[in-house]
Amino acid sequence: MSQNSIVAGASAGPISTGAARGLWSSRWVFFLAATGSAVGLGNIWKFPYITGENGGGAFVLVYLACILAIGIPLLMAEVMIGRRGRANPEGAFAAVARQVGASRHWRWLGTLAVLTGFLILSFYAVVAGWALAYAPAAAVGSFAGLDGESSGALFGAMLGDPWKLAGYGTLVLLLTLGIVALGVREGLERALRFMMPGLFVLLLILVGYATTTGHFLEAVHFLFDADFSKLSTQGVLVALGHAFFTLSLASGAMMVYGSYLPAGTSIVKTSLMVALADTAVALLAGLAIFPLVFANGLEPGAGPGLIFVTLPIAFGQMPFGQVVGGLFFIMLALAALTSAISLSEPTIAWLVEKFGIGRLKAVLLSGLALWLLSLGTVLSFNAWAEVTLFGKTFFDGLDYLTTNLMMPLGGLGTVLFTGWALSRTTVQEALGIGHAQLFTLWWQLLRWVTPVGILIVFLHTLGLFA
Length: 466
Ligand code: PHE
Description:
Blueprint: H1 27-38, H2 41-53, H3 57-85, H4 89-100, H5 107-139, H6 148-159, H7 162-182, H8 185-211, H9 216-224, H10 233-246, H11 253-258, H12 267-295, H13 306-317, H14 321-355, H15 359-380, H16 394-421, H17 424-431, H18 436-461
The structure holds phenylalanine.
Family: Belongs to the sodium:neurotransmitter symporter (SNF) (TC 2.A.22) family.
Main location: membrane
Subcellular location: Membrane
C-alpha cells in the first residue's frame, strides 16, 4: 500500500480508494483529526492576546460572528472540495474545476493555500516550542512565588535566547515531520483521544482557579461587554483573520483532511462539531486567563507573551501547581503538534502528488525549508527585534501576511468558487445534505453573506468603507 498520505501508515492498513491514497477509518477519526487541527495555539495562546490587544468584548463578538457567518460555511466548503477532488489542495481545486468544466486557473487558490499553511507552520513551530520549554519548567517548580514582574522577566529571558528558541522550535519541527513521515494515523488518533479531553479538563481546572482570584467577573465583563468604541478597523480584520486561523481554513489543512474522508460521511454535522469544540476551547482559555491578568495588574494588551506570563503566576500559587502546570504545557504542546501536523500535510501532499517525489523526500525537503524560515521568527524576538518592515518584525509581518491577508483572500476565492463556479446540484450532492431547507440556508449564506462579509472587512480596513 502506498505511503502517499498521512493516513497510510506502515502499521495502519488504510482502506484503498483505488487511487493510492488513504482514507480515515471513520467519521469519528476525521472529527478527531479536524478538531486536533483546529484546536491549538490559536485558541489558547493567540485568542486571549489578540482579544486583549483589541479591547475585549466587541472584538469577541465580531470574532464569533465571523465564525458563524464565514468560518463555518467555508469549513464545509473546504472539506467538500477536498473530498470531491481527492487530492492536495491544488490538485483538488483542479480536479473539481475539471469535473464541472470551470477554468483551470481556480487551482491557484490551492497553491495559495499550500503556501499559506507552509508559512504559518514556520512561526507556529517556534511558538509551540515555547510551550514545550515551559512544561519542564513548570514541573520542576520554577514558577514558585512568581509575580507579574518576575514572570515577565522569565519569559523575556527565554525570548532573548535565540539558541533556546531555535532548539525547541527545531524539536517541534522534528516531532511534527517525524510523525508525518511515518503516516501514523493510529498514533495521531491515540494521542488525540486522551489529549482533547485532557486539555478540556485542565482548562476547566484553570477556570475554576480563576474564579478564586476575585477578578473573575471583571474578566467576564471584559470578554462579553461589547464596547465598539474600543474596536479599531484593524481589529475587525484581526477578528476575521483569526476566524480563519482558528478553524484551520484557507491553509489547505481542512481541505487535505477532507480529501481523506470516506464518501457518505456527513460533512455538515462534523464541521459544526469541530467549530463548536474550537470556540468552546477559546472562550474557556479567555475565562482562565483574564482573571489572572487583572488580579496581577498585568496589561491585557501585552502581546504574544500574555499566557506565558500570566499562567505561570497561577501555577506558582495554586495547590499542585507543578503537576497542573506541567500537564497543561504538555497538553498545549500536544495540541500545537496536532495542528502543526495538519499544517505540514498540504505541502507534503502537494510535493508528492505534483512532482511525483517520495513522501520521505517531500518531508525532508519541506522540513529543511521550514527550519530555515523558522530561524527568521526566532531572531525576530532577539537579534532582529529592531529590524522591521512597515513597523513589523519578521514574526509580526509573517503573522499579518498569512492570517490577515492571505487567509481572507484565499477564503474569498474558495467561497466564490464553491458558490458561483459550481452548480447548486453539484454542491448539494458533494456535500451530502439531504435536508433541502438546511442546504438552501447554507448555500445562500455561502453565496452572499460570506463573500460580502469578507469584502466589507477588507474594504473597511483599506479605509474605503467607513
Ligand atoms: N487552527 C490552529 C490553531 O488554532 C492553527 C492552524 C491554522 C492549523 C491553519 C492548521 C491550519 O492553533
